[in-house]
C-alpha cells in the first residue's frame, strides 16, 4: 500500500539552491502556479542563457533580513492573481525540500511584500502521492527563521536610483518638483517623452527604444501620463514593468482610475460611499436614467473628462434630458450622477502616498460655478481631515491599486462621498496651499519600495 505524503494548509520549506533554509509557505490548491516573493528583480546574462537576480525578505516581520538570490530563467509567463490582475512574471526552476523530501518545482517571481506569506505553493508543485489537508497547519516538520541567524543582518544601504519620469510636460510644476526632490536625495532622473517611446515585444528581454537607442534599465518609473495618451502610455508603462522596473503606479491601476465607469464599479464593490451614478446605452432609457440618479438637478459627466472639463450641472429634468440626448448625438460616453447640494460647490482633495494621507485641501469653485477644480478658477486652502475621510481616501486608492493618488470627495450629510481618484495628481495647488514638500514624500516612498540589493558574505554585490 502506497504511503501518502501529507501537507497542511501551510508548510515550512527550504529552497537550498537559492540559499533559503526556511520559508513559511501557504499551500493553495486553488492556484495553479507557485509564487515566490521577489523585489528588485534584475535580469542579466546572454539571450540564450538568461538569468535573474532578485532580493528576498524571507521573514515578513523582519524587513532588515535580506537575501540576494539568482537563478536561471526558464520562462516568462502571464499569471492572473486572485484579484484578477494579470502580470508577466519570470519563471525559475529550483529544488524544493519539505521534511525529508526534495523535488524540483517551477516558481514565478512577484512582489508579495504586502502578503502574509512569502511563498505560495500551487497545485502544479504538488506531486501525485501528496494529500493536502486544509484543516492542518504544518503536517511536516516545523522550521524557524533562526536558520538565518548566521547571515548578515543590517539596515539597507541607500544607493542612488536611476529614475525615469514618464511625461510629455517636463517643464510643468509637478515634473520640476519631482526632479528637484529626486536630485536633492542623490538620484538620477531621466525625463522620457511617453509618445516618443517605441517597443520591441517578444523574447525574454523586453526592450524600450527612444531616438534609435535601447533605453537602459531603470530602478523605478514615475508615470505622469496625460489623459489624451492614456492607452499608449499604459502600453509603454507595461513594457517598463516587464523590464523589472518598479512603477510608482501600475498601468492596470492607472487604467482603472481613468475609466470612470470601471472606477465607480470597483469602489461600489468595496462599499465605498459615492454619489449615486447611472449609466445607459439606449436613448430609450434617458428618463429613467435621470430618475435613478436622484432627480434633477443632476451632474452629467463625460467618461473622458479631466480638470472639470466635460462636467455639466443640469438644473432641471428637461435640461438633463436635453443634455443627455445631445451627448448621445455626439456618440459620447457619459455618466449621470447625483448632485450633492450640501457640498456647496466645494470638495476635498486628499493626497495619498503609500497608504497614508500626507496632505489635504478644500477646493471651492469660482462664484457661480459648482465645479471646484483649480483649473476652472477654483481656490484651495489647507484643511484638517477626519479619520473617516482619511480612511475613505486610503481605501479608494487601495481598491484601484494606486500607490500615489489624489482622492476627491464631497462632504455630504451622510459622510464623505468619493467623486474621483486621480492617478497623476498635480502638486502645485496642494503644495502651495499646505506648504508641504509632497514631491519629496513621493521620492521617499520610491526609495522604500526599490530596496537595494544585499551583498554576498564575501562583499560582492
- Give the tally of structural domains: 4
**CATH superfamily placement of the largest domain:** Acid Proteases
CATH class of the largest domain: Mainly Beta
| Global mean pLDDT | 84
Strand portion, in percent?
25-35%
Nearest-angstrom radius of gyration?
25 Å
User: Poorly predicted ranges (pLDDT <50, ≥5 residues)?
Assistant: 153-157, 452-461
Helix-strand category: alpha+beta
CATH topology of the largest domain: Cathepsin D, subunit A, domain 1
- How many distinct helices? 9
CA-based shape: globular
Q: What is the share of helical residues?
A: 10-25%
Tell me how many strands there are: 27
- Major β-sheet annotation: 9 strands, mixed
Strand order of the largest sheet: 2-3-10-4-9-8-7-6-5
The CATH architecture term of the largest domain is Beta Barrel
In whole angstroms, the N-to-C terminal distance is 51 Å
Organism: Pseudoruegeria aquimaris
Protein name: Probable alpha-L-glutamate ligase
Keywords: ATP-binding, Ligase, Magnesium, Manganese, Metal-binding, Nucleotide-binding, Protein biosynthesis
Domain ATP-grasp: 264-447
Amino acid at each position: 500500500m502506497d504511503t501518502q505524503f501529507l501537507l497542511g494548509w501551510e508548510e515550512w520549506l527550504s529552497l537550498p539552491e537559492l540559499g533559503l533554509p526556511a520559508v513559511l509557505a501557504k499551500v493553495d490548491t486553488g492556484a495553479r502556479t507557485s509564487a515566490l516573493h521577489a523585489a528588485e528583480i534584475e535580469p542579466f546574462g546572454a539571450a540564450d542563457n538568461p538569468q535573474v537576480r532578485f532580493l528576498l525578505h524571507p521573514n515578513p516581520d523582519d524587513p532588515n533580513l535580506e537575501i540576494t538570490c539568482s537563478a536561471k530563467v526558464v520562462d516568462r509567463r502571464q499569471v492572473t492573481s486572485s484579484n484578477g490582475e494579470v502580470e508577466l512574471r519570470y519563471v525559475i526552476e529550483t529544488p524544493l525540500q519539505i521534511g525529508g523530501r526534495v523535488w524540483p518545482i517551477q516558481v514565478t517571481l512577484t512582489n508579495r511584500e504586502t502578503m502574509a506569506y512569502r511563498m505560495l505553493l500551487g497545485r502544479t508543485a504538488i506531486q501525485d502521492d501528496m494529500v493536502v489537508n486544509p484543516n492542518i497547519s504544518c503536517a511536516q516538520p516545523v522550521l524557524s527563521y533562526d536558520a538565518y541567524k548566521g547571515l548578515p543582518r543590517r539596515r539597507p544601504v541607500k544607493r542612488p536610483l536611476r529614475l525615469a519620469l514618464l511625461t510629455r510636460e517636463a517643464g510643468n510644476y509637478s515634473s520640476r518638483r519631482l526632479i528637484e526632490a529626486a536630485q536633492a536625495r542623490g538620484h538620477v532622473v531621466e525625463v522620457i517623452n511617453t509618445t516618443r517611446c517605441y517597443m520591441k515585444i517578444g523574447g525574454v528581454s523586453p526592450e524600450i527604444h527612444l531616438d534609435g537607442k535601447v533605453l537602459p534599465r531603470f530602478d523605478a518609473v514615475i508615470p505622469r501620463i496625460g489623459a489624451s495618451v492614456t492607452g499608449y502610455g499604459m502600453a509603454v508603462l507595461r513594457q517598463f514593468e516587464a523590464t523589472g522596473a518598479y512603477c510608482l503606479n501600475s498601468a492596470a491601476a492607472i487604467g482603472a482610475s481613468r475609466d470612470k465607469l470601471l472606477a465607480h464599479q470597483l469602489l461600489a464593490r468595496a462599499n465605498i460611499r459615492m454619489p449615486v451614478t447611472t449609466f445607459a446605452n439606449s436613448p430609450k432609457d434617458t428618463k429613467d436614467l435621470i430618475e435613478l440618479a436622484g432627480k434633477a438637478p443632476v451632474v452629467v459627466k463625460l467618461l473622458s473628462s479631466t480638470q472639470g472639463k466635460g462636467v455639466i450641472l443640469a438644473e432641471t429634468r428637461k435640461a438633463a434630458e436635453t443634455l443627455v440626448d445631445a451627448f448621445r448625438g455626439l456618440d459620447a460616453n457619459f455618466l449621470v450622477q447625483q448632485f450633492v447640494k450640501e457640498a456647496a460647490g466645494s470638495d476635498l482633495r486628499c493626497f495619498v502616498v503609500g497608504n497614508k494621507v500626507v496632505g489635504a485641501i478644500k477646493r471651492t469653485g469660482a462664484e457661480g460655478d459648482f465645479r471646484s477644480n483649480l483649473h476652472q478658477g477654483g481656490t484651495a486652502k489647507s484643511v484638517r481631515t477626519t479619520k473617516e475621510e482619511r480612511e475613505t481616501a486610503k481605501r479608494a486608492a487601495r481598491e484601484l491599486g494606486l500607490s500615489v493618488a489624489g482622492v476627491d470627495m464631497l462632504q455630504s450629510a451622510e459622510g464623505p462621498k468619493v467623486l474621483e481618484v486621480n492617478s497623476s495628481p498635480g502638486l502645485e495647488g496642494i503644495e502651495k496651499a499646505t506648504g508641504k514638500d509632497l514631491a519629496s514624500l513621493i521620492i521617499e516612498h520610491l526609495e522604500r519600495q526599490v530596496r537595494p540589493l544585499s551583498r554576498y558574505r564575501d562583499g560582492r554585490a
